[in-house]
Predict the structure.
Amino acid sequence: MGDVTGPKFMMRSEEQIRNHYLNCGVSVDCVIFGFDEGDLKVLLVRRGVEPYQGQWALPGDLVDPEEDLNVAAVRVLNELTGLNNVFMQQVFTFGEVHRHPLGRVFTVAYYSLIRIDKYKVNKGNWAEEAEWWSINNIPELPFDHNLIVETVSDNFRTQVKRKPIGFELLPKTFTLTEIQHLYEAVLQTNFDVRNFRKKLLTTGLLIDTNTFTKNNAHRPARLYRFNKQKYDRWSKSGFTLDM
Amino acid sequence: MGDVTGPKFMMRSEEQIRNHYLNCGVSVDCVIFGFDEGDLKVLLVRRGVEPYQGQWALPGDLVDPEEDLNVAAVRVLNELTGLNNVFMQQVFTFGEVHRHPLGRVFTVAYYSLIRIDKYKVNKGNWAEEAEWWSINNIPELPFDHNLIVETVSDNFRTQVKRKPIGFELLPKTFTLTEIQHLYEAVLQTNFDVRNFRKKLLTTGLLIDTNTFTKNNAHRPARLYRFNKQKYDRWSKSGFTLDM
DNA sequence: GCAAAAGTGTTAGTCATACACCCATGT
DNA sequence: ACATGGGTGTATGACTAACACTTTTGC
């Protein structure tokens, strides 16, 4: 209630507010993206408890009344993956009255981008199972989780075209072909090899490591890493991959 | 709790959840933008109640446990301005533990764009006063409202460059100069008159009404209206005003 | 006739697009 | 030597950016 300015408030004592309005829960749900086998993937967990026990769902949790919202989001991700310092982004808050059977629970949806090779599921700690699902093959999920996945994915696709966040999904060094496949999977298009390379290299966001892939049955590929220095400059202005 | 998948849940009975977690409030706060006198403005209300009684603040209200989130946002706007069917956009949710003195209250920030000429403040119904403030001259606000205004304004500026939503701030018919001034005020830049006109006219989003302004001490200006038909096509693809 | 804002075209540079072949390696 | 993916350049069209003067009205 930056917030209690409205007409209804005229009729509310502090006690009435507590009894009537402060009866809600807030949760965070996290769409964790990874990139593997040429495919954009989402990490789902099998629920260990009712309601919807045993069903695949988004990892999420209630926010503790003594916990900041963004801390809760980071916690959910960390408890599941063991990862810290991961790219996370708040996207949208869902607040339909009946979206949850146990009571009035709002949920704030986030996405995070992780390097799938860094990820080891934190088993005993969490739900029964966790598994990567292709974004093109998400099962039916409980609550409004399918809507959340859609909303968040749309948002991610929009962002990835404008800000160079795609790198967060790749290992520290990567080839131009790898990043092209990543963008093609995320944006569901195909780019011309030469134009894509030109565009990426002229951004100055890639640093040539002067190392190469090995043991492929073909010409070795040059490895690059992401130039975090220039990241901020680019995120502000109009980085696009609209080709 | 699409949402109760986390480790803490292992130790939670349904009763414990209700007692411990469902004690929060959720409010909506609305940054209402208007355009007047060549300036982007925000509608603030003077709080009629404690805490912070008498201070200027964003219009907002607690979400009723039986009320959908987006319905609450529409209600706040309608109760204050009497307007319906207004462009509204959810932007961000603020959930710091101590952002509100009365308890744990999350707030979901929205913005809306209204035609300032349509607006008549709904007096008795609401807080003590309501007034338009230039975005460049917002006073110190209670709670985290200054941060909300900043966050929402940044988001609006980003959106307005990519989607033709600026029209929502103008009367039904308007001149090219008016819309240029609007964009210049919002984006804090100056556009070349000829290039700006060219760009806007080639979008096909403007319909020539073949009417003109009158009684100015200068050449009459051609009046246009917004082509809602083409709106959707444009909002999807890459409408920009980056010049 | 003058003040005030409306309106208009061209050129140069930059950027996006389309397109096809040779290269380096492992087997 | 062949299969596999890595890597490269150029030409065309589209869009952006820069720039100054004439038009129409009210007074």
